[in-house]
Design a protein that fits this description.
The protein is mainly alpha-helical. Helix content is 67%, strand content 0%. Helix 6 runs antiparallel to helix 7 and helix 15 packs antiparallel against helix 16. The N and C termini lie far apart (90 Å). 53% of the residues are buried.
């Protein structure tokens, strides 16, 4: 009888080979080319819209008045041009595919990508508003358009890449182009990442956006040399009195900006009750024209060149005139954002802050004008945008004095205590103020 053979033990399964984790170098290197393409494309988009707006502005405010024999910035002409701009933008919002994007009062710096069909109407509405003298900047429509195009093209070319990657590149590339430096983009992306759980090094996460921002910045630098330098006198050795002045002015300017933030949802509700864009936007244009007639031509447009003009005239404008400029410009910003004109709020807020600071300096002449302007710009931006790093960056660039950075960092602290947890100039979809 054959003896039974002991059972043969089963061969243990061979463990499947787990792929070695990719090193950061292998992950980051393939991101460089797409980031460069999006950055350069964002810069070219910004330059194209800016050039179109400049040409239209020359036609509206110089060629036509000369041909008609009227003053370039007479009250009647400002009212006529801004009302006509409201009619033109209203037609685009009414008839263009996608209605030129969502309600701009609900939009900030960045957001979900829009369908590409919206982009032509959004850019056309933005260019007309910029040229027609509306008190809004180019940042939000340009960022929205760049993000939409980057997301659409990127997803078609590389469908496996997460959409958030293309959104970050579009935002960063446009911010680099707008400010002429990648620093603002790095600050915005870092601030956004701080509120989200993430893996890996911060610099690994912002590597591709920084490439896009650098490419966008170099594109505009090579073509147009954008600058936020207002020509303020340098302040190399700020003293205790400068720190005290900055603390007080940044806080007061934040309160001033915050008052507008409380008004914003009520004004927006009043305009939206009219319902149709061909009622809302022409009426908004008429109100902006009346405000322009009250405040003068310095309160028109996005405000960058106008800020340089009032800073260059330090000592020539009295405190009353400067206070009027600040109030009228802030009112124009509220009206433009409430009635549906497509544009951003950062550039006009810089003008509001500069006028507020120069008003304080005219009242208390011992205050250094560089401290007055940069601290007030910081306070107004903190109140209206709630973007802490961007507000500090813009204020520091306006000051153009490295020694002012420490002063502005200190001044931001009491101003932040005033504004944090309170409304800012952005609404939710139901028209309620965001906090």
């Amino acid at each position: 009888m054959a003896t039974e053979r002991p059972p043969t033990p089963e061969t243990p399964p061979t463990p499947s080979a787990t792929p070695a984790p990719e090193t950061p170098l292998r992950v980051l290197l393939p991101q460089i080319l797409p980031a460069l393409v999006v950055g350069v494309g964002s810069g070219l988009l910004f330059l194209g819209i800016s050039e179109l707006a400049d040409q239209l502005q020359e036609l509206m405010w110089n060629d036509l008045p000369d041909a008609l024999g009227v003053g370039h910035y007479s009250s009647l002409w400002m009212i006529a041009v801004l009302t006509a701009t409201g009619i033109a933008v209203g037609l685009i919002v009414w008839k263009a595919p996608g209605h030129a994007g969502p309600d701009p009062a609900t939009e900030g710096l960045g957001g979900p990508p829009l369908p590409p069909v919206v982009v032509p109407g959004l850019l056309a509405a933005s260019a007309l508003a910029l040229a027609g003298g509306v008190s809004l900047g180019p940042e939000s429509p340009t960022i929205g358009s760049a993000v939409a195009l980057a997301f659409w093209l990127g997803h078609r070319a590389f469908p496996a890449v997460p959409g958030a990657f293309w959104v970050a590149l579009g935002v960063a590339g446009t911010l680099g182009a707008l400010f002429g430096t990648p620093i603002a983009a790095a600050l915005v992306i870092s601030e956004a990442l701080a509120s989200k759980p993430s893996r890996g090094s911060l610099w690994d996460q912002i590597f591709a956006p920084l490439v896009a921002a650098g490419a966008g910045a170099m594109t505009t630098q090579l073509a147009s040399s954008p600058s936020f330098d207002m020509g303020l006198p340098p302040l190399n050795n700020p003293g205790y009195e400068d720190v005290l002045a900055a603390l007080v002015l940044a806080t007061l300017a934040a309160v001033f900006g915050l008052l507008a933030c409380y008004v914003y949802p009520h004004l927006h509700r009043a305009f939206t009750r009219l319902g149709h864009p061909m009622l809302v936007l022409p009426l908004g244009g008429l109100v902006l024209g009346l405000l322009g007639a009250l405040g003068g031509h310095l309160t028109l447009f996005k405000g960058l060149h106008e800020t340089q003009e009032i800073v260059a005239g330090i000592g020539t404008l009295g405190s009353g005139e400067l206070a009027k400029l600040a109030v009228v410009k802030l009112a124009a910003l509220l009206v433009a954002g409430s009635c549906g004109f497509r544009g951003g709020r950062v550039f006009p807020a810089v003008f509001v802050g500069a006028a507020f600071g120069l008003c304080a300096q005219a009242l208390v002449t011992e205050i250094n004008p560089t401290v007055a302007v940069s601290a007030a710009v910081l306070g107004v931006l903190l109140a209206t945008t709630r973007q802490g790093w961007v507000s500090l960056f813009v204020a520091a660039v306006v000051a153009a004095s490295p020694a002012m950075i420490a002063v502005l960092c200190l001044a931001s602290l009491p101003a932040w205590l005033v504004v944090t947890g309170r409304p800012f100039l952005q609404l939710d979809e139901d028209g309620r103020a965001l906090r």
